[in-house]
């Protein structure tokens, strides 16, 4: 079976630099909130064009801390998408708030802005749009709605580092942007890691305190926080990878365009909205014959993954919210048809041709 994502290929190109960095950290014996974390935060600020960046332990923690910093709590409602990874919903539940789902746009798989206003109530405090698969959500319309109703925006940009609308980077449109550096992400470390970004210094200071046991100084605790600090070793690795991220994303786009060129008249391929820069964390096709394609690929040694087979509103963990099948028909339809194919910057073009041809041969049998 070929790899769905080959992390060794990327590592081999920067191996010497990474080993040198790790050795320097070992020699320094400074592992928590050291110079690499500080420098990486500064480099993220420069790359994204924000004034504040706070390294945390994971993308999930980034969302959790963002909600806490905005004082979202029991009885509050947070609007989000049912087509996402569970961490988006989990973070809302962590603070005691209620996730309120809005169906998705069938072209982008992101939250549909046209359906948001009907879900706003006096209890609504924030919107969490998710830039799914690396495709920017419609932040212009979402921002207009948030401003109209006095709502906060937390961008879940876990899958979209480097994506843009115009010249503005995703994660910088809302009050807070949240990123994940899970190993398979476009910018990934060698474990877990995350980042919170904002242009609000008060929010940033709250998050710095919250990530470190609610402590602004040693053995002084102003609130109950978390132990959620970006690891010094991971920060060092991410600093190296950050220098290459534009190249990595450009290569992903080239690989995605090749898939689309071959498959666009055979299956539903990803759509790019005008004036946006999709970074293809995942390359996801859609077909009514999804399961047969997946099985056929597997027989030929090609892995594929269904992201996400069960929409959030139908997850057993949140049955108490009272959602049922049929509540969000677009998300439910997409979840039955979606299939992600191997994509990473170093995947050979020949392999993409091979995968695409296998899919075409499969569909010729129907």
State the low-pLDDT regions, or none.
none
| CATH structural class of the largest domain | Alpha Beta
Query: Average pLDDT, to the nearest integer?
Result: 97
Integer count of domains? 2
- SSE ordering: HHEHEHEEHEEEEEHHHEEHHEH
- Over the alpha carbons, how many angstroms does the gyration radius reach? 21 Å
Biggest sheet statistics: 7 strands, mixed
Strands of the widest sheet, in order across it, are: 1-9-8-5-4-2-3
β-strand number: 12
**Helical element count?**
11
End-to-end separation in angstroms reads: 25 Å
Q: In terms of structural class, how would the helical and strand content be classed? A: alpha/beta
CATH topology of the largest domain: Aspartate Aminotransferase, domain 2
Shape from CA axes? globular
CATH architecture assignment of the largest domain: 3-Layer(aba) Sandwich
Strand content: 5-15%
